[in-house]
């Protein structure tokens, strides 16, 4: 039986994908996150974001809504629809504040919203919370997989002893 990896072995620097077509906004979000223990990866539009996500799924996505080529709503739908990436938390960063826009974001699968102009404290608090939830979800999945493996081994040992 393989021992389960300890939390220290599982801990890695979380990766946050920051998606915004406006370079100053992108740089501002990255600057706000500099003090956090995370790596940020920039993407300048939805298509670039999807390409990055397919190669290296991040732990969290900060996603602008209004972008050329593909809106944040469409990116969110695609990420949440794919089984491999559906558990990645997404925070939509938007200047939109109409109820219909919020409803559309929820329908596309977003986990949270931050309004522009972005407040640094609010951003850091929400990012920390989402990363903590992602870490706990990942830990739970590892624990369940480990327990399932132990159960299979116990069943095999039981049937072998008969």
If you consult CATH, what is the topology?
Answer: Rossmann fold
**What's the overall average pLDDT, rounded?**
90
CATH superfamily: Response regulator
> Which architecture does the CATH hierarchy give at level 2?
3-Layer(aba) Sandwich
Residues in helix, %: 40-55%
**Which strand order do you get reading across the main beta sheet?**
2-1-3-4-5
**SS elements, strand count:** 5
By secondary-structure content and strand pairing, the structural class works out as: alpha/beta
The helix/strand series, from N terminus to C terminus, equals: HEHEHEHEHEH
Give start-end ranges of low-pLDDT stretches: 1-9
Task: Explain how this protein is built.
The chain is of the alpha/beta class and about 160 residues long. It has one domain: Rossmann fold. The protein has six helices and five strands. A five-stranded parallel beta sheet has the order 2-1-3-4-5, with helices on both faces. α3 packs parallel to α4 and α4 packs parallel to α5. The protein is elongated, with a radius of gyration of 19 Å.
Question: In summary, what is this structure?
Answer:
This protein is an alpha/beta fold and 162 residues long. The protein has helices at 7-10, 23-32, 46-55, 72-81, 99-108, 120-160, and strands spanning 15-19, 39-43, 60-64, 90-94, 112-115.
């Amino acid at each position: 039986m393989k021992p389960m990896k300890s939390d220290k072995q599982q801990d890695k620097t979380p990766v946050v994908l920051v998606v915004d077509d406006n370079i100053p906004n992108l740089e501002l979000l990255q600057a706000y996150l500099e003090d956090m223990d995370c790596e940020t990866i920039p993407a300048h539009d939805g298509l670039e974001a999807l390409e990055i996500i397919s190669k290296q799924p991040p732990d969290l996505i900060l996603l602008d809504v209004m972008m050329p080529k593909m809106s944040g709503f469409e990116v969110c739908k695609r990420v949440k629809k794919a089984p491999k990436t559906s558990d990645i938390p997404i925070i939509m960063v938007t200047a939109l504040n109409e109820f219909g826009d919020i409803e559309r974001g929820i329908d596309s699968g977003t986990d949270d919203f931050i309004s522009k102009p972005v407040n640094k404290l609010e951003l850091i608090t929400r990012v920390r919370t989402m990363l903590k939830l992602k870490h706990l979800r990942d830990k739970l999945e590892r624990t369940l997989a480990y327990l399932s493996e132990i159960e299979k081994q116990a069943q095999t040992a039981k049937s072998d002893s008969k």
